[in-house]
């Protein structure tokens, strides 16, 4: 994941980033893949036919597109559409979800990760935090089915990660004790975020 050992020790989001990478790696890798808000395109290595988009060219291969408005692709173009840690940065996320549905092929998969609790970041483009119920409503409203939403980390780890984000010297404790605690977590009412999968009907 490109994080050195030293960086890992003081990186308060090590576990959620690892879980996100595993989540993306578990998605269908065959077919055409669209990554909305791809940034550097770090997930491209996982897919054979990968199209990254972003509002600016942080990756030379990116298609410049504003998901707040429309995606510059024909309807039914992709087998998988991803939005990893993106929807919170869109002032009209419902438009992006609707556009994802439009450009998906019938039977295609939409996948996203969204934050529930985290500090302000990428200001001033940080607009939303999401409960699983809000995400489910967005997806149902545009026609998605087979919606599956999983919490990303539980109550104890979230509290530790938030503390380590403020005081970075505590990150090693979060990345060891917090990780071990997460293996036995039973309370997911305060997740850092949610991982989402849904299908476009055939």
UniProtKB/TrEMBL annotation:
Transmembrane segments: none annotated. Residues 34-111 form the Methyltransferase type domain. CDD domains: AdoMet_MTases. SUPFAM superfamilies: S-adenosyl-L-methionine-dependent methyltransferases. InterPro entries: Methyltransf_11, Methyltransf_Superfamily, SAM-dependent_MTases_sf. It comes from the Bacteria. One of its GO terms (molecular function) is S-adenosylmethionine-dependent methyltransferase activity. It holds the Pfam family Methyltransf_11. PANTHER family: METHYLTRANSFERASE, METHYLTRANSFERASE TYPE 11. This is Methyltransferase type 11 domain-containing protein.
């Amino acid at each position: 994941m490109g994080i050195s050992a030293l960086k890992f020790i003081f990186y308060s989001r090590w576990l959620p980033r690892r879980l996100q990478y595993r989540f993306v790696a578990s998605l269908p890798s065959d077919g055409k893949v669209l990554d909305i808000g791809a940034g550097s395109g770090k997930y491209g290595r996982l897919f054979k036919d990968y199209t990254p988009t972003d509002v600016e060219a942080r990756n030379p291969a990116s298609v410049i597109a504003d998901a707040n408005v429309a995606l510059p692709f024909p309807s039914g173009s992709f087998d998988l559409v991803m939005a990893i840690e993106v929807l919170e940065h869109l002032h009209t996320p419902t438009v992006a979800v609707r556009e994802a549905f439009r450009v998906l092929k019938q039977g295609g998969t939409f996948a996203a990760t969204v934050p529930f609790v985290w500090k302000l970041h990428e200001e001033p483009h940080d607009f939303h935090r999401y409960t699983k119920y809000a995400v489910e409503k967005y997806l149902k409203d545009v026609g998605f089915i087979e919606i599956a939403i999983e919490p990303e980390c539980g109550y104890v780890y979230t509290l530790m990660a938030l503390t380590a984000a403020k005081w970075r010297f505590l990150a090693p404790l979060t990345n060891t004790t917090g990780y071990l605690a997460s293996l036995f977590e039973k309370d997911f009412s305060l997740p850092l975020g949610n991982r989402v999968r849904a299908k476009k009907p055939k």
